[in-house]
């Protein structure tokens, strides 16, 4: 063997050593898990998904016991208004109550139902918290099925396990906020869309389309941006579907959209009758656009830090609020829309006048969205941002793998990720906006981890 060949061989061995050590560690962990699995109780070995759901339930109950917060912000107030006979009303930027479309209706209605059954008090709050626990625990099922259907059994199980154990996901149950309900619901919706897309019979396609429409309609009553996601999903099924004839895809799409209207159309009709304007879900888009695009905007839902810490949520100047009340003194059906239109005009004017600053702000929002929002007290806790930091490399690997090994069905998990990212760049960032896409994030993490192990094995071989 020549000197060059010898040095090349030794160099290759030294380069491969870290990879071999990592694989030895992975194999050791795998062997230990296999041994533990062999000694696990029979119910765990025979019903692993049930066991994972029970583990998720236990952890969420612990989180609820340790950090339960019964505050429900404007949702509580709107629910109380419903029960007091004021209808769906709120007091936006003024003390008087007025008809409202400020928030989507699903969660206030759920709260009102809990107050009706249990009375307004701790019993109702605990019942709502237990609903969060159940939704989070059952969320492991669609995450597993979606990851499994897209990228294989192991990727699905990794994603489901991450959802069951991830601190931010567990924390959802301790906060009485609709995110704990609509995040798992969004995965059920996407899973049904994928099933519809892959249906190999007319009957199955039509049934799945109807089920997708019902779930999507319910999601719309939780999230104002979901009509956009629905349209993108239906468009992709029409354009990229190959297992069904075009006429079947068209018929199924009509059925899906009809089901969406059956569930959410009543709310849109109510808004039109009350406000004499088409408001599909919520009438606060102008306010939210202004929060992320004004001279003092930080990119987050809060202002920048000052010397004493965060300055709090971005709010309107007191003098401006007084001016708005003078210009529109009556707390009638036009008040909310008047303020929203005014703020939308201010935000669009700022964007047109400062395009360079707006682009920089959008870039800052992008970074904050995919790292953490340092202006938010909860997002600054290591238990929140460290797990994201550790999983991000695997997510990037999984994302790249999904693009390189392209398949049409990957679009169904890419749509929520891309829409959430673009909306954050246009509007503003809050930690919960990122948390809503965690299940899809976990699916790519699982895919990335599997791809990394495969690369390492090839490298060491």
Poorly predicted runs: 1-16, 304-313
- What is the oligomeric state here? single chain
The residue-averaged pLDDT reads 88
Pairing-aware structural class of the strands and helices? mainly alpha
Strand order of the largest sheet: 1-2
Radius of gyration: 25 Å
Count of DSSP E strands?
4
Q: What is the molecular shape?
A: globular
Distance between the termini: 21 Å
* Tally of helical segments: 21
What is the beta-strand fraction? under 5%
The proportion of residues forming helix, as a percent range, comes to: over 70%
Mind summarizing the main beta sheet? 2 strands, antiparallel
Question: Any overview of this molecule?
Answer:
With 461 residues, the chain is mainly α. Among the domains are: 131 residues, no CATH class; 93 residues. It is 73% helix and 2% strand. It is built from 21 helices and 4 strands. The strands form 2 sheets. Strands 1-2 form a two-stranded antiparallel sheet. Strands 3-4 form a two-stranded antiparallel sheet. The radius of gyration is 25 Å and the shape is globular.
């Amino acid at each position: 063997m020549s000197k060059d060949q010898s040095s090349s061989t030794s160099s290759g061995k030294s380069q491969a050593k870290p990879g071999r050590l990592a694989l030895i560690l992975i194999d050791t962990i795998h062997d230990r898990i296999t041994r533990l699995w062999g000694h696990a109780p029979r119910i765990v070995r025979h019903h692993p998904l049930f066991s994972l759901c029970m583990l998720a339930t236990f952890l969420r109950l612990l989180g609820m016991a340790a950090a339960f917060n019964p505050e429900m912000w404007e949702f509580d107030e709107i629910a109380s208004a419903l029960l007091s006979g004021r209808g769906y009303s709120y007091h936006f930027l003024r003390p008087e109550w007025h008809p409202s479309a400020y928030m989507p209706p699903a969660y206030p209605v759920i709260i009102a139902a809990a107050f009706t059954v249990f009375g307004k008090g701790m019993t109702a709050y605990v019942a709502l918290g237990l609903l969060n626990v159940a939704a989070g625990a059952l969320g492991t099922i669609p995450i597993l099925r979606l990851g499994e259907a897209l990228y294989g059994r192991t990727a699905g199980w990794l994603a489901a396990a991450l959802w069951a154990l991830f601190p931010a996901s567990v924390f959802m149950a301790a906060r009485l906020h609709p995110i704990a309900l609509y995040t798992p619901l969004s995965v059920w919706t996407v899973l049904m869309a994928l099933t519809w897309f892959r249906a190999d019979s007319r009957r199955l396609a039509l049934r799945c389309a109807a089920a997708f429409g019902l779930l999507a309609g319910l999601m719309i009553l939780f999230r104002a941006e979901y009509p956009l996601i629905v349209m993108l999903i239906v468009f992709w099924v029409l354009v990229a579907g190959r297992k069904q004839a075009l006429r079947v895809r068209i018929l199924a799409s009509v059925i899906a959209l009809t089901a969406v209207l059956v569930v959410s159309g009543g709310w849109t009709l109510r808004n039109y009758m009350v406000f004499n304007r088409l408001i599909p879900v919520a009438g606060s888009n102008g306010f939210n656009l202004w929060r992320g695009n004004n001279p003092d905007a930080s990119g987050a839902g809060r202002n920048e830090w000052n010397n004493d810490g965060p300055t709090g949520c971005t709010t309107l100047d007191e003098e401006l609020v007084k001016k708005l009340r003078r210009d529109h003194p009556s707390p009638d059906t036009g008040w909310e829309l008047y303020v929203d239109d005014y703020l939308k005009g201010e935000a669009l004017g700022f964007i047109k006048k400062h395009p360079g600053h707006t682009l920089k702000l959008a870039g800052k929002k992008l970074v904050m969205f995919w790292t953490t929002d340092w202006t938010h007290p909860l997002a600054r806790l290591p238990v929140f941002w460290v797990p994201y930091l550790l999983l991000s490399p695997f997510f990037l690997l999984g994302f790249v793998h999904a693009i390189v090994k392209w398949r049409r069905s990957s679009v169904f998990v890419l749509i929520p990720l891309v829409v959430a990212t673009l909306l954050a760049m246009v509007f503003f960032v809050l930690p919960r906006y990122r948390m809503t896409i965690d299940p899809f994030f976990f699916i790519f993490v699982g895919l990335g981890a599997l791809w990394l192990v495969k690369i390492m094995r090839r490298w060491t071989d």
